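Listing S7. Sequence submitted for prediction.
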Amino acid sequence: MSESPPIVVAAGIVTEGGRILIGQRLRSDAYGLRWEFPGGKVQEGETLEAALRRELAEELGIDAEVGKEAFRGRYRYPDRDVEIVFFSVASYRGVVRNYAFESIAWARRAELRDYNFLEADRELVERLARGEAVGG
């Protein structure tokens, strides 16, 4: 019987001007200096939305109102499989601060291709860069 891959939740935090928040993984990380969307692993007993709210509080210091599930995909790395679930963030309270990344950036959708994203995020990046709707 095959085990389900870990689920990773990610957030689409978008400004009124259409820029989306991305974070660069820490240099010391196994996938260091690669870009990703804020979020992280779902812990046992957590809902997807609760996990994302927790991760956004830890990584960015914000209290987020999680919106709709906008994308779901799987990716197989050489050492593990992951399932990524991407949510829109309807709104948040607080000031975005960087508590977990090498750096953060607010990028236009068309610019997302210019960043070296984790492989698991690349299908989502392509959809966003093409202007496809991914929730709201």
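Caption to Listing S7: primary sequence and predicted structure tokens for the chain studied. The helical segments are 48-60, 122-129. The longest helix spans residues 48-60.
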